[in-house]
UniProtKB/TrEMBL annotation:
The lineage of its organism: Bacteria, Bacillati, Bacillota, Bacilli, Lactobacillales. This is Abortive infection bacteriophage resistance protein.
Length: 325
């Protein structure tokens, strides 16, 4: 049953009731004209900002809540930026692999060259080429006389790219992983099949974060569903670089997302830049004069991390890009 839409005054009153320090109707109405109720108020129902009765804690005023909303937008922008850079790496390696499968789409999307896993992915790619909503594939056809594989890879979604990887035959997947981790020897202790599966899951992890960041999810209440198996990191001596649950599983935490980002790049500068930007973002929102900190929260408490977690990521970068005998 669809709930009836509340009248503006009723919605304002409902929002005011969520705060222990009652704001004026005028101030609340102004906020709700700029930010949807479901995202700004209801979106924090299961967060540490509210008590058991789902009422905001006393120190959370509408102004403080807006600062936290602003904090989350900044976090989304960073996560999206890092994900897009990793996406470039994922696509570049796939382009190199499938470039040997033929020049035109009928050749490099030929089902006989691939496994039978996830067969629907090629249908969606062909549909994207046929619909050509932005005219990008028509441009390639006119310029090159065909649509090269590298061009198609660059103009499909990350989900379709990961699906394409999943359809590669074992030999091609093995070559993909070898190229993907070309400047390091990490993950060499794993069984070959585990190595292929780990990379696929890590790519899905990046995809999940990318999609949630792009769609404006409230990250303080968002759980990362993709499961990175702790045994993969244990097998490679990397488990101490991850934040774990009480049961020893890899936690659903953004620090672990940064660890995955670092592990999936062969570029030291990308890893260093990503960590530096994330550190600066955390520090700014943890300063005493920051409105969020004045309320009793700060970036560390909001993300459930410790200052040492950032130091551990720095050690991961050092370990990853130090030659190992």
């Amino acid at each position: 049953m669809v709930k009836p839409t509340l009248k503006p005054d009723d919605l304002v009153n409902k929002a005011i009731a969520q705060f222990q320090q009652k704001p004026s109707k005028r101030d609340m109405a102004l906020y709700l004209r700029n930010i949807p109720y479901y995202a700004w108020i209801k979106g924090y129902n299961n967060s540490s900002l509210k008590n058991a009765e789902r009422i905001f804690k006393e120190q959370i005023t509408p102004d403080v809540l807006y600062q936290i909303h602003w904090f989350e937008m900044g976090l989304s922008n960073l996560l999206l930026k890092f994900s897009l850079e990793t996406e470039k790496h994922i696509k570049s390696v796939l382009s190199e692999i499938v470039s040997t499968f033929g020049n035109d789409a009928d050749s490099y999307l030929n089902d006989r060259l691939y496994s039978k896993r996830n067969t629907a992915v090629f249908s969606t790619i062909r549909q994207a080429i046929e619909k050509d909503e932005n005219g990008v594939f028509e441009y390639a056809q006119n310029k090159f006389g065909l649509i090269p594989s590298w061009y198609t890879v660059q103009h499909i979604t990350l989900g379709q790219t990961i699906g394409w990887y999943s359809r590669l035959l074992p030999a091609s997947k093995t070559q993909y992983v070898k190229l993907f981790f070309s400047n390091q020897i990490l993950f060499t202790q794993m069984k070959p099949q585990d190595r292929l599966e780990m990379l696929r899951v890590c790519m899905n992890y990046i995809l999940e974060i990318r999609n949630k960041a792009a769609h404006g999810n409230n990250f303080l209440t968002t759980r990362i569903e993709t499961n990175i198996q702790s045994r993969w990191m244990k097998d490679n001596g990397l488990i101490n670089y991850f934040k774990l649950t009480d049961k020893g599983a890899i936690d659903s935490n953004f620090i672990n997302y940064l660890a995955i980002i670092i592990l999936l790049t062969d570029l030291p500068l990308f890893a260093i830049n990503a960590l530096t930007e994330f550190k600066n973002f955390i520090w700014v929102n943890a300063e005493e004069q920051n409105p969020i900190s004045k309320s009793g929260f700060d970036s560390y408490k909001l993300l459930k991390i410790e200052p040492n977690d950032l130091n551990i990521l720095g050690k991961l970068i050092e370990y990853k890009f130090t030659p190992h005998n």
